[in-house]
Amino acid sequence: MKLLNEIQQATIDGRAPEVAQLTQQALDEVMSLDDIINEGFISAMSIIGEKFKNNEIFVPEMLIAARAMKAGLKVLEPLMLAGERKYLGKIIIGTVKGDLHDIGKNLLGMMLQGGGYEVIDLGVDVTPDKFLAAVKEHQPQVVGLSALLTTTMPFMKETVKVLGESGLRDQIKILVGGAPISQRFADEIGADGYAADAGSAVELVKAVLS
Ligand code: B1M
């Protein structure tokens, strides 16, 4: 699809205003949110990630592409957030300690909100203690941890451990996700579930709360 290719290329090139404009055009042409996100943005980020791995681009270009993707997501946000206001449950989300990647986590938050859940987003670089304090304060049913770096995966494990030792573990379900995370890792660290993408995370939340 030509327009989705254009969104992908403009995201890779970091042309934020154009990404926003093309995203609006895609919505006007009644393209689905899933197609715009998957074929426009996420595919662009995969290409960016490959280029970075191969030393064809460096951190600034990655950052500029990320900003362009955010500009596109901003256009989609009102549609993703539209829906039920009577919440189905409360979820705390955050990117674990040492990790500053927030695009996937933000997408997760928007999809969960669109799915009818109240979302408390703790942001990035969230320490295990901060997760614990938030659980005590907000008493959610679910905690969603995101990690994009292999070097920050141990903090996901640490967070599960700290929540486990808190005496509150049986009141919450801990779900994990992010590019380097797998079901096997989730099992190893004692999480209650793993989702490969934001869409499946909403399904997973539904399943663990049912
Ligand atoms: Co970074 N980065 N980055 N980066 N970056 C990756 C992750 C990398 C794979 C690139 C590569 O080498 N190919 C690599 C990690 C390698 C590794 O650990 N194995 C990497 C690296 C090395 C780094 C730095 C160390 C680079 C450096 O400084 N030398 C540095 C680390 C900074 C830090 O965090 N301390 C760094 C920095 C950055 C930027 C700041 C420039 C920028 C982030 C901007 C931002 O987020 N605000 C950035 C970007 C953009 C990327 C890539 C290109 C794209 C990430 C992204 O946004 N993807 C990434 C390569 C890649 O992933 N292909 C890369 C799109 C997003 C929608 O997908 O986040 O995977 P994702 O989320 C998905 C799913 O994973 C899932 O749902 C989402 C949507 O469906 N999901 C969950 C995510 N969290 C979930 C939680 C759940 C459930 C599902 O809970 C229930």
UniProtKB/TrEMBL annotation:
<keyword id="KW-0479">Metal-binding</keyword>
<dbReference type="InterPro" id="IPR050554">
    <property type="entry name" value="Met_Synthase/Corrinoid"/>
</dbReference>
<dbReference type="InterPro" id="IPR003759">
    <property type="entry name" value="Cbl-bd_cap"/>
</dbReference>
<dbReference type="GO" id="GO:0008705">
    <property type="term" value="F:methionine synthase activity"/>
</dbReference>
<dbReference type="GO" id="GO:0046872">
    <property type="term" value="F:metal ion binding"/>
</dbReference>
<protein>
    <submittedName>
        <fullName>Methyltransferase corrinoid protein</fullName>
    </submittedName>
</protein>
<dbReference type="Pfam" id="PF02310">
    <property type="entry name" value="B12-binding"/>
</dbReference>
<dbReference type="GO" id="GO:0046653">
    <property type="term" value="P:tetrahydrofolate metabolic process"/>
</dbReference>
<dbReference type="InterPro" id="IPR006158">
    <property type="entry name" value="Cobalamin-bd"/>
</dbReference>
<keyword id="KW-0489">Methyltransferase</keyword>
<dbReference type="GO" id="GO:0032259">
    <property type="term" value="P:methylation"/>
</dbReference>
<feature type="domain" description="B12-binding N-terminal">
    <location>
        <begin position="1"/>
        <end position="88"/>
    </location>
</feature>
<dbReference type="GO" id="GO:0005829">
    <property type="term" value="C:cytosol"/>
</dbReference>
<keyword id="KW-0170">Cobalt</keyword>
<dbReference type="Pfam" id="PF02607">
    <property type="entry name" value="B12-binding_2"/>
</dbReference>
<keyword id="KW-0808">Transferase</keyword>
<dbReference type="GO" id="GO:0050667">
    <property type="term" value="P:homocysteine metabolic process"/>
</dbReference>
<dbReference type="GO" id="GO:0031419">
    <property type="term" value="F:cobalamin binding"/>
</dbReference>
<comment type="similarity">
    <text>Belongs to the methylamine corrinoid protein family.</text>
</comment>
<dbReference type="InterPro" id="IPR036724">
    <property type="entry name" value="Cobalamin-bd_sf"/>
</dbReference>
<feature type="domain" description="B12-binding">
    <location>
        <begin position="88"/>
        <end position="210"/>
    </location>
</feature>
<dbReference type="InterPro" id="IPR036594">
    <property type="entry name" value="Meth_synthase_dom"/>
</dbReference>
